[in-house]
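Postdoc handover notes: sequence design on the structure in folder B. Input tokens:
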């Protein structure tokens, strides 16, 4: 299977202040809209991903078209993100998925961060290093946006940035019904995972972010 590559353009240090959703600097980023419904028929709901970087930070922006956003809130715990509409970024060290790290972010800027190992061995007690992840979100009538700034230091420390490449999965979970008793999601992905059943936690779900 061909691994897709997205080119991440460099910007001058300090010109993008955190995950600023409305910065004009996003015009310097390539628009990635090549998302599919791997396990459903028809075109995927519209979503655009952009990324930029400087020497200190990787900046990522998701613009999601959605007029029926569903967010589960009970105790406002981070695990509630998995019952909600959200975007997801997975970063792996290698194709064997010996260790990889996951960020799932909902429209309320809540982050479900965890580390994992193949296959689906999750450690939700883990958290992205403090101070090395900043998130901003915005929600409107027909869409929502999720932006994050991830420090280059943390990506290097976790063994994720190698030869200016990040092996990354880009996903979206579209919540069809707020029901924690059963999963009722439509799954959207950049890569088409080689699995009959929905599963982003396999090697074929990852593409490459190439920093240039």
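Designed sequence:
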């Amino acid at each position: 299977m061909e691994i897709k590559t997205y080119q991440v353009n460099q910007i001058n240090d300090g010109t993008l202040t955190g995950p600023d959703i409305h910065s004009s600097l996003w015009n310097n980023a390539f628009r990635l809209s090549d998302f599919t419904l791997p396990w459903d028929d028809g075109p995927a709901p519209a979503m655009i991903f952009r990324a930029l970087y400087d020497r200190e930070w990787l900046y990522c922006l998701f613009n999601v078209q959605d007029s029926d956003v569903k967010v589960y809130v009970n105790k406002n715990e981070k695990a509630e993100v998995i019952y909600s509409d959200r975007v997801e970024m997975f970063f792996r060290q290698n194709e064997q998925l010996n260790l990889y790290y996951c960020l799932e972010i909902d429209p309320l800027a809540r982050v479900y961060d965890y580390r994992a190992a193949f296959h689906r061995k999750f450690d939700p007690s883990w958290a992205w290093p403090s101070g090395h992840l900043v998130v901003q979100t915005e929600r409107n009538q027909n869409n929502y946006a999720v932006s994050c700034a991830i420090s280059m230091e943390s990506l290097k420390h976790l063994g994720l940035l190698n030869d200016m490449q990040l092996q990354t999965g880009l996903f979206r979970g579209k919540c069809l019904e707020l029901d924690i008793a059963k999963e009722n999601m439509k799954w959207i992905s950049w890569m088409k995972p080689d699995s009959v059943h929905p599963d982003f936690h396999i090697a074929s779900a990852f593409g490459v972010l190439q920093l240039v």
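Context for whoever picks this up: The longest strand covers residues 165-175. Don't rerun without checking with the PI first.
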